[in-house]
Amino acid sequence: MDIFDFRDKVIADYAEHTRSFLNILDPDLRRFVDGQLDDEVLWPEPLIQLNPSFSPGESLEKLVAEGVLHPECRKIFCRKTDADPKGTPLRLHKHQGPIPQMGSCSCGVTPFI
């Protein structure tokens, strides 16, 4: 499931819940509140950002080519635009890359959030 589709579903469910207990009798006030709910003023757009002060790490392309990451990661973690719907692969920060094995501990890739 796409995380943004999931977010939209949660917001739609919450909006429906919020509207279920509103009983505004004044037509002007009801139009205003409905307009605010339709404009999603109670729930802002998700904030996604990368902190450029972290040390650069490996590219997703290289990690996929080495078999460290699943090939789908190339499609999921990229910058997509209307002009480039396929997207440009992201470069990880150093702390997000593979972690070397230490002793008997077998570690993977730091999860994406």
N-to-C CA distance: 15 Å
Q: Oligomeric status of the shown chains?
A: single chain
Mean pLDDT: 81
Number of helices: 4
Radius of gyration, in angstroms, nearest whole number: 21 Å
Class derived from helix and strand content: alpha+beta
Count the E strands: 4
**Beta-strand level of the residues, as a percent range?**
5-15%
H/E element sequence: HHEHHEEE
- The low-confidence runs, each spanning 5 or more residues with pLDDT under 50, are 103-107
Strand order across the largest sheet: 1-4
Main sheet record: 2 strands, antiparallel
Helical fraction: 25-40%
- Which word captures the global form? elongated
What features would you describe in this structure?
The protein is α+β, with helices and mostly antiparallel strands and 113 residues long. Among the domains are: 3-38; 56-96, no CATH class. The protein contains four helices and four strands; from the N terminus they run ααβααβββ. Strand 2 (78-79) and strand 3 (88-89) form a beta hairpin. The two termini are 15 Å apart.
Labels describing this entry:
113 residues; alpha+beta; two-stranded antiparallel sheet; 4 strands; 36% helix; 10% strand
